[in-house]
Write a structure and sequence with these properties.
The chain has 224 residues and is of the alpha+beta class. The protein is built from 7 helices and 7 strands.
């Protein structure tokens, strides 16, 4: 299973995101798999790294690099970073760019059902339980004004309780059946793993037990 690193980056100049991405793409030692600009935290973590993940980041990237680290020549453009080492099945990586392009091409064909209008009527004040809150609705309206009906990608960092993984697997199957009909797709998924010897990530202690930090990640496509 190939190793990759998921980075949340705050840049020294927030307006330099396109320039930073161009530098990544031109760096031979970096395989840029995905780049996206974080917009909103639907659920903020309360038990793991809540302070670090409550910060605003300018860029989310998933990359393959030697020693699971960004090249030194790029680091001067980064003021802070949250980093997770992940293993992604090779079959997913192999077909990812083609699959992602297909999802984008098909997004315009997905018809809205009006369910969001119904959600507005029963909106509550707290989005922490995945309810559609007034704050989340305002964000969605703002996002639509700025980007139109373009697709969005949602990052999930998952930390399982003792029996949580089997339950989440059942949820994943149900997601495929329900969200798949509306164009939703878990386009990149994998396990959170320890970084290779000599490298580091935001887990802190290299020997930190797996049950004490993130276990899996997913990047989910929604057509609009």
């Amino acid at each position: 299973m190939p190793l990759a690193t998921l980075h949340l980056l705050k840049l020294t100049e927030s307006g330099s995101v396109p320039t930073f991405i161009q530098r990544l793409q031109k760096t031979p030692s970096v395989n840029l798999i995905l780049a996206s600009q974080p917009q909103y935290a639907v659920i903020e973590p309360t038990k793991l790294d809540s302070q670090a993940l409550s910060s605003h980041y300018d860029l989310l990237i998933l990359v393959e690099t030697p020693n699971a680290a960004l090249p030194e020549e790029l680091r001067s453009a980064i003021s802070s970073e949250y980093k997770v080492t992940v293993g992604v099945p090779s079959r997913i990586l192999k077909d990812y760019h083609e699959h992602n392009a297909q999802l984008w091409n098909e997004a315009a064909e997905v018809k809205l059902t009006g369910s969001l209008d119904k959600a507005r009527e029963r909106a509550k004040k707290d989005a922490q339980n995945l309810e559609v809150s007034p704050d989340l609705l305002r964000f969605m309206d703002d996002l639509t004004q700025r980007y139109g009906d373009k697709p969005v990608t949602m990052l999930n960092l998952l930390w399982f309780t003792e029996d949580g993984k089997p339950s989440y697997a059942k949820y994943g199957q149900a997601f495929k059946e329900v969200a798949g009909k509306r164009g939703g797709d878990a386009k990149l998924v994998g396990n959170v793993v320890a970084p290779p010897q000599g490298a580091s990530d935001s887990r802190g202690d290299f020997g930190r037990p797996a049950q004490e930090w993130w276990n899996e990640f997913s990047l989910v496509h929604y057509p609009r």
